[in-house]
Design a protein that fits this description.
By secondary structure, the protein is of the alpha+beta class. It has one domain. It is about 25% helix and about 25% strand. Strands 1, 2, 3, 4, 5, 8 and 9 form a seven-stranded mixed beta sheet that branches. A two-stranded antiparallel sheet has the order 6-7. A hairpin with a 2-residue loop joins strand 1 and strand 2. The chain is globular. The N and C termini lie far apart (about 55 Å).
Length: about 240
């Protein structure tokens, strides 16, 4: 099992140019956090988080799936849940990444000009599901794709993907609606806790990537990286000064 090593800037999937204004708003929100002007009540987000592996463990991806190029033998994960911008190990897919490649791609023979990427797609637990919806079981899939394929293309080769305004919002039809909805931490604290059920796996088959790549590289969603917000602000001021 190989670790992803491509450097990048975010773990949220921003897949197109229409997301620039949303990303800009989120950078402003990050700047407000640095300045200490955010509301006292913190918030989390209900979304599909993107994960890599490092030293046999899950780690938040530091680039979005459209700018990450996994290597042959990599393991990538997707987990739907209510996650804070800080993120913790408990937000990771509920499948051991050490077993994922053998389980997903062990029976898929290598082919010239392609790579095998094991994907763990974990829809999460009922406690984090949108109202009126229930998640399915975690599943494994092996994406056998061209060597230059991105993480997004690998995912799209084995699952149906729903996007809105350039953001990745749903996988395999879940959730049916919504996209990175805000969930107040206070509301979560008053909800009865629900233990994670044991993860059972639906093992998928290998598939070839299809369709063109996304129209632009991936940018960040709301991370608590004040430096990015400050950099965006300085860049805006610099462009304004250069404008006639």
């Amino acid at each position: 099992m190989k670790s992803n090593s491509t450097p990048g800037r975010g773990r949220w999937a921003v897949l197109g140019p229409r997301a620039r204004s949303a990303a800009g708003c989120l950078l402003v929100a990050s700047a407000a956090m640095v300045a200490g002007t955010v509301p006292a009540q913190a918030a989390s987000y209900r979304y599909w988080s993107y994960w890599w592996t490092a030293d046999g463990a899950w780690t938040f991806a530091t680039a979005g799936p459209s700018s990450s190029v996994p290597g042959d033998g990599s393991v990538e994960g997707w987990h739907f849940g209510v996650t804070s911008v800080a993120g913790t190990a408990t937000d990771a897919p509920r499948v051991d990444p050490l077993d994922a490649f053998a389980g997903a791609c062990g029976s898929v023979a290598p082919a010239p000009g392609t790579k095998r990427v094991a994907l763990v797609i974990d829809p999460g637990v009922p406690a984090d599901a949108p109202d009126g919806q229930l998640p399915g079981e975690p599943r494994l899939a092996c994406a056998q794709v061209p060597m230059e394929a991105t993480g997004y293309q690998a995912l799209r080769s084995v699952a149906a993907v729903r996007t809105e305004d350039g953001l990745l919002c749903g996988i395999d039809g879940y959730p049916l609606t919504g996209c990175a909805d805000v969930v107040a931490d206070q509301a979560r604290a008053t909800a009865p806790p629900a233990p994670d059920p044991p993860a059972t796996l639906d093992q998928g088959t290998a598939s070839q990537a299809s369709g063109p790549p996304p129209s632009s590289s991936v940018g960040p969603m709301p991370l608590i990286l004040g430096g990015l917000a400050i950099g965006a602000m300085l860049g805006f001021i610099w462009r304004r000064r250069r404008s006639p």
